[in-house]
Amino acid sequence: MDYRLITTLEDFDRLAPTWNTLLSDSITNSPFLRHEYLQTWWQTLGGGEWEDGQLAIVTATEHDELRGVAPLFLTENNESEPALVLLGGIEVSDYLDVIVRQRDLSGFISGLLDFLAGSGQMSWRLLEWYNLLEDSPTLIVLKNEAMKRGWSFTQERFRPALYIPLPGDFETYLGSLDKKQRHEIRRKMRRAVESNLNIRWYIVEEASTLDIEIDDFLRIMAQEPKKERFLTPLMRSQMRATIQAAFRAGWLQMAFLEIDGEKACGYLNFDYANRIWVYNSGIDGRFIDLSPGWVLLGHLLQWANDHQYTEFDFMRGDENYKYKFGAVARFVVRAKVVR
User: Fold this and answer.
1) Phi-psi category of 47—alpha, beta or left, where left has phi over 0 and alpha has psi -120 to 50?
2) How high is the pLDDT of residue 58?
3) How far apart are CA 323 and CA 181, in angstroms?
4) What is the DSSP track for 191-258?
5) 75-109 pLDDT per residue, tens
6) What is the SS3 string spanning 312-333?
């Protein structure tokens, strides 16, 4: 394979069509690895998470065909060491990896490490890659290739990431839950239907109203103090750009529950690769007695089952309500290679 270092936004932009085509067949096909997602992430460096960085994307081609991408940037890590970090890391992108087909993985990682070691265009000491799923085949290959070169490799669990396997039928899904929990979900959804209030839920579909819907979602989300602190002006800009990019590319699922014409709850999800990826949510505290979060989540799970989605991914975080809805845990890891 022929390796090339991409350091400019213009060259990054030119990769969009072949990047996303390769991603659809990659070992990890995550919305956080889509070209349009990482492009918006880079414009604000994750909503201000990083103060600075140098774009350092490495591509591998063979006979003019894109065979692998290592979406990296060079920055200083928390220990002030020059590190090559995966684009999207750390806080706002739940699942990251290199972009390569399984059959090309070993050759790509081997050539990547040789290329990085021999590149005189940048000075780095370590690779520090966050948010790889712990069953990613990248990890064992990266470990083996690092050891061949006498470099150190460490791997540690970073955060839990919960998901629900979907059977394709809502009643079957409910039947898989604890009896008490199954009753609670049904009771809350039924209570909303039987109330004297005008209740409806919907998924945003109109481009003409998208900006208003985004404003409403961020307003509801910011009612939680922790999320209000998270939503700095730069982070708001990052989230708005992400939502707009996902909408244009066709993988946004923004849903709201309305009570008497007012938004009581919102979910910001991604509808991608036959899964629903739950990115964030917000609840208007005025309606908390009607459990709008549970009601909307129940409708979304019913919708996903009815449309034969295979997985409802809560992604990072082990909040208790996720377990109540039947989620099971897996983990994302931090992998570190020091040369």
Assistant:
1) left
2) 98
3) 10
4) HHHHSSS-EEEEE---GGGHHHHHHHHHHHHTTSHHHHHH--HHHHHHHHHHHHHHHHHT-EEEEEEE
5) 998 888 999 999 999 999 999 999 999 999 999 99
6) EEEEEECCHHHHHCCCEEEEEE
Cα distance between residue 11 and residue 17, in whole Å: 12
Residue 152 has a pLDDT of 97
Q: Please, which residues have CB within 8 angstroms of residue 144's CB and are 6 or more apart in sequence? A: none
Rounded to 10°, the helix 292-306/179-194 angle is 100
- Tallying the residues shown for the chain, one arrives at 339
Instruction: Give me the sheet containing 2-6, strands edge to edge.
Output: 2-6, 57-62, 65-70, 99-100
Question: What does 10-43 look like in DSSP terms, one character per residue?
Answer: HHHHHTHHHHHHHHTTSS---GGGSHHHHHHHHH
| Vertex 31: Cα angle to 282 and 29 (nearest 5) | 140
Q: What is the pLDDT confidence band of residue 207, given thresholds at 50, 70 and 90?
A: very high
Q: Does residue 119 surpass a pLDDT of 90?
A: no
The DSSP code sequence of 157-173 is EEEEEEEEE--S-HHHH
Q: Which amino acid is at 149?
A: R
Q: Which domains does the chain have, with CATH numbers?
A: 2-160+333-338 (3.40.630.30), 167-309 (3.40.630.30)
Average pLDDT, integer, range 36-52: 96
pLDDT beyond 80 at 151 = yes
CA distance 151 to 61: 26
